Amino acid sequence: MRNRTEEFLIAQDPAIVRDTRHAVRRLCQDVDLAADTCETAVLLASETVTNAIVHGAPPARLVIQVSPEGIRVEVSDGTTLPPVVVAARPDATSGRGIGLIDILATRWGVQPHASGKTVWFEIAPVPQPTS
């Protein structure tokens, strides 16, 4: 098992969300992360990238860092507006992304910088019970 990092420019194209999911899965497999950790990361990465496309501004960038200790995803975009956790209505078709990150990520945050912000999250693998 080894550490892996990949970086991508995020096009203002919804197809990048699919590409993000594929990249996260591939990197998780490269370091043999548990399937549940990987699938949580896939969900949260796609939500974070979608937010950058819908609410952010170019330029946008995705960094995925995977190791046996877990995964860190960073999505930077050109707006300084921070994401907000909202209580989405049950019939809403959007508005749950940051709430999911808040619930499912081990840690997450927002790092403002001169040209915008970076939203990041980390997921540490859940220890597997020994028999």
UniProtKB/TrEMBL annotation:
Q: Which domain of life is it from?
A: Bacteria
Q: In which organism is this protein found?
A: Pseudofrankia inefficax (strain DSM 45817 / CECT 9037 / DDB 130130 / EuI1c) (Frankia inefficax)
Where is each Histidine kinase/HSP90-like ATPase domain found?
A: 11-121
Instruction: Work out whether the entry's keyword set contains Kinase.
Output: yes
Q: Does the keyword Transmembrane helix apply?
A: no
For this UniProt entry, which segments traverse the membrane? Answer: none
Cited CDD domains: HATPase_RsbW-like (cd16936)
Q: What is this protein called?
A: ATP-binding region ATPase domain protein
Sorted keywords for this record are: ATP-binding, Kinase, Nucleotide-binding, Serine/threonine-protein kinase, Transferase
Q: Which Pfam families match?
A: HATPase_c_2
Which InterPro entries does this entry report, sorted A to Z? Answer: Anti-sigma-factor_SerPK, HATPase_C_sf, HATPase_dom
Q: Which PANTHER family match?
A: ANTI-SIGMA-F FACTOR RSBW (PTHR35526:SF3), ANTI-SIGMA-F FACTOR RSBW-RELATED (PTHR35526)
**Recorded GO MF terms:** ATP binding; protein serine/threonine kinase activity
